[in-house]
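Re: export button greyed out
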Amino acid sequence: MGSEKSTPHTLKLRINDVIFGYESRAGRLFDVILICMIVISVTAVLLDSIESVRAVYGEFLFQLELLFTVLFTIEYLLRLYSTSNLRRYVFSFYGIIDLFSILPTYIAFLFPTAQYLIVIRIMRVLRIFRILKLFRYMGEANLLYSALIGARRKILVFLFSVLTLIIIFGALMFIIEGPENGFTSIPESIYWAIVTITTVGYGDISPNTPLGQFVAGLAMICGYAIIAVPTGIIGAELMAEVQQRNRRTRNDRECVSCKAKDHDLDARFCKICGNRIHQA
Amino acid sequence: MGSEKSTPHTLKLRINDVIFGYESRAGRLFDVILICMIVISVTAVLLDSIESVRAVYGEFLFQLELLFTVLFTIEYLLRLYSTSNLRRYVFSFYGIIDLFSILPTYIAFLFPTAQYLIVIRIMRVLRIFRILKLFRYMGEANLLYSALIGARRKILVFLFSVLTLIIIFGALMFIIEGPENGFTSIPESIYWAIVTITTVGYGDISPNTPLGQFVAGLAMICGYAIIAVPTGIIGAELMAEVQQRNRRTRNDRECVSCKAKDHDLDARFCKICGNRIHQA
Amino acid sequence: MGSEKSTPHTLKLRINDVIFGYESRAGRLFDVILICMIVISVTAVLLDSIESVRAVYGEFLFQLELLFTVLFTIEYLLRLYSTSNLRRYVFSFYGIIDLFSILPTYIAFLFPTAQYLIVIRIMRVLRIFRILKLFRYMGEANLLYSALIGARRKILVFLFSVLTLIIIFGALMFIIEGPENGFTSIPESIYWAIVTITTVGYGDISPNTPLGQFVAGLAMICGYAIIAVPTGIIGAELMAEVQQRNRRTRNDRECVSCKAKDHDLDARFCKICGNRIHQA
Amino acid sequence: MGSEKSTPHTLKLRINDVIFGYESRAGRLFDVILICMIVISVTAVLLDSIESVRAVYGEFLFQLELLFTVLFTIEYLLRLYSTSNLRRYVFSFYGIIDLFSILPTYIAFLFPTAQYLIVIRIMRVLRIFRILKLFRYMGEANLLYSALIGARRKILVFLFSVLTLIIIFGALMFIIEGPENGFTSIPESIYWAIVTITTVGYGDISPNTPLGQFVAGLAMICGYAIIAVPTGIIGAELMAEVQQRNRRTRNDRECVSCKAKDHDLDARFCKICGNRIHQA
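Workaround output, generated via the alternate export path:
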């Protein structure tokens, strides 16, 4: 970030402050307006997908869509211009989302075939990714994020073992129930197993034979019991983080000689310099 | 509360004691009677909504409804009269519920058109908000409440990210499955996504294409895994509170000689310097 | 228990040892046989309820049922005879279950009308309560039990607030969807709300109007989020108990002067007598 | 393992290193290739179960199946040859899975009747057990595993009490709803109770009478509330393990002068006596 930084232009820095920054008044205002526009744009896409609404307001929503795409494109170009590290921004999570949320409308222009246009119009809904930007503004998300990162390997192991269980139960039910009871293939049975083990339970496919119902019951109890595992993982991770923070905050006592903090409550001597903490 | 307080009337104070207080015998009796009346009133509304019951007991239930509304109105007026801070009560959570639980019946009188009356009669069910009053009497609720307040920002971040996920999955399924498979619009697909990710799974709308079933499976596993997040948040928050309380009880005692803290509750001598903690 | 105890008969004490005790060889053998008989008896009731099985083995199962009832009755009488405290046993949890698990068959004899007999035969399934006896033999259950007892008030508050939520959502959906969409009465809507908020989601009743689907979505997200509360409560309770136990066990160090235990890891002086714990 | 070890052959040791080991380059390459082959093989079985795919690629998939079975058989024989402890490997978890994942295809050859062949072809899906091998490579799984082992008795008590609840609710609903509402027998009702209490909720069987819906509502709330128990158990277990690990890292350092423990990781001086902990 530091090495590739170009010579500071006043304009570029101001734009960077407004678009990327949160400290200045203008920066905060920009963010609020951006969020409002994202919400309006996503709402327009949602309304456009309703048959009866499109019949009446289709033209207006199309114009609105165009307007927002132009505005978001200008915003994207300004981001590209003002960022201190182009490569980092373009390939960052938000850089990719920023690009993907303006692309669909342009693709619809390059290939103006009617058939394609319909597909692309539907693709515009990917614009909703833009709403993910809202995340950026929430500080508290970091604690959750770091807890999930800390638990990512345990969660992967858990997800993998659930997948194994799902495949096994899916195959078993295909053998037991068979195509005549709606379990037409193992992939279809695996879909059923996911629906069952996650306790969603649509009921579009359900076992009919006694043995099938018995195995399905086992699958349900499995799914019901193992949900406890990721919950325990994340709970323990969050708890450990909260405790670590508490340990830090409750030890505000400062050593008078070396200014070291983070002493235990029963500490009488500084753990860093060995002097008494309180002269009392 | 102190500044706006009028000169103390004996009657006003007594009513306040009975209606708002819990300490006196009369206050407790009033609360018990009030709870009984609320339960009876809500039950009457429930019964009135059953076609066959209303055909036979409709008139009686209407009279009962009127009687309770009159009684609750008198109670509300007494609360307004006896409260030490009118504005605070009226705009408090319970003040608003108290008002809303008597309003519907009166609105039915002001606009006596038959058509309106039916709508208003149904609105009377809002009276059930009154049952929320029961909460006031439960002390343990406070711990839960403060844990939820402490976790409110994390829960908001979580709810927001779940909503984003729901919108994305809804839009994806609209593209994949389309109106011919029941996903008539993106809002309808979002409804499906909520039903799926929360693992409710009515089955009124369910995917039919293999790709749709695959994406639906992903949505289910997502919903199944992320339920762990709020659970972990609240568990960690409650746990931290329980620990803090334990720690407080434990740390309140200080050794007079060496100022060491964190002694067990049954400790008579300082664990660090060996002197008596309490000279008693 | 001590005061009402009759003079010790050798027979009575031996029976008590076998029936109530776990220490002797005979006592353990009795328990194992009892559990086997309970499982066989419950299985027989389950099989008897299947139409095709009853048609063939109905007579045999009826005889088996009679045999088990006689045996369990003898066992119950022996328990009454040998218990050291009759009143305590009869009104204990297991005393009541022991009685209820033999009563149904006898009631069928006293009122021998065919019509009644069928009702009573179905009532025999209450015998399954007997299986609850198995619980008695599991020690680990106590930790769970005490955690649930410790959390009982928080759980009650939680259950009550969920019930309030269910009633409110039920009434709201009755107003919004109405009888023409399957929400025939408020109790029926409350049933729907339970099905939805607990994320069971049968789909026998489901919202059809956009507003109904929106409110249903809110109910689902509520149900999905608040499941975290009891989990957090019980998790925190269990965690606190585990920690308390750890604190106790990891402090096995004993004071040489006064034999007091349960010292902190950093304690140098006995918290009870003030002497050094380790002379080292 | 040590006592039964035969005299070391260079070839045998090398094979053992490649097949069982993870340290050498060849060993890691072997594992990666094995995992790829397992995934391809399972995918082939999944595709083969789809009617339309088998019609076109059935012959090719059959050949692939044969090839993989031969390869996996060679691998199994090499494992038998190179293992340092034959008995331990054959009866280990993975030894049994290794055998079961090649057996089905051979059984299809020994009994070449067409009818049997179909059954056996379906049995081949048991090969998916092979995917469980993937587990071996994940280190993080151990923490989860030991937490589950630590909580196994509590989980058993929980599962048993859930089963009791399921049988009781199943029997109750059979009495209340009866065969005319789809509750054809107690086993069928128990299947319904599992579907309901685990919050799966297919809706293939659902209560119709008001009393039945009331009892079903109770069952749902039960299921909704008790899911908190295993979650709490596993969360507490994981949390205790994380804490124990933290405590161990923290407590390993001892002050040489006063023997105080529990120093922070960055502490250079004893917090109790002020002397250097490490003379380094």
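Chain A touches chain B through 62 residues (CB under 8 Å). The button fix ships in the next patch.
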